């Protein structure tokens, strides 16, 4: 049974100023994503860092002492998070993210995108528009 709430039609219930990613080294992951996205890096402490564009949502990285990297596509340890980013040239983008510290995942399920692992093991995709 679907529930319709007319009083909220067209209104957001919440705003999304950031999303948080668990990892073993917040500063390292902030530097990785900051360099890849050309976003400002903010190292708050040894336990928290962020990357932010000039306007829009930020990615925040939180230290987790017992962090276990995902084993995608094997379900032993689920993905935990996944980011798709648009690129104009897959080969050039791949070379750039690998140079930053990413690893190309051996499982590549589609021709219009490529799956990589960030330095903490989170999968992310570079996708053609």
UniProtKB/TrEMBL annotation:
Gene3D superfamilies: 2,3-Dihydroxybiphenyl 1,2-Dioxygenase, domain 1 (3.10.180.10). It holds the Pfam family Glyoxalase_6. It comes from the Bacteria. Residues 20-127 form the Glyoxalase-like domain. PANTHER family: CONSERVED PROTEIN (PTHR35908:SF1), HYPOTHETICAL FUSION PROTEIN (PTHR35908). This is VOC family protein. It comes from Paractinoplanes pyxinae. The lineage of its organism: Bacteria, Bacillati, Actinomycetota, Actinomycetes, Micromonosporales.
């Amino acid at each position: 049974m679907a529930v319709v709430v007319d009083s909220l039609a067209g209104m957001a219930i919440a705003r999304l100023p950031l999303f948080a990613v668990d990892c073993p080294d917040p500063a390292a992951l902030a530097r990785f994503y900051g360099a890849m996205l050309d976003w400002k890096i903010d190292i708050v402490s040894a336990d928290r860092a962020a990357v932010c564009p000039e306007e829009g949502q930020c990615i925040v990285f939180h230290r987790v002492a017992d962090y276990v990297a995902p084993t995608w596509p094997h379900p032993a340890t689920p993905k935990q998070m996944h980011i798709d980013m648009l690129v104009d040239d897959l080969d050039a983008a791949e070379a750039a993210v690998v140079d930053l510290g990413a690893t190309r995942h051996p499982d590549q399920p589609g021709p219009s995108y490529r799956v990589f692992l960030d330095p903490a093991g989170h999968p992310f995709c570079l996708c053609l528009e």
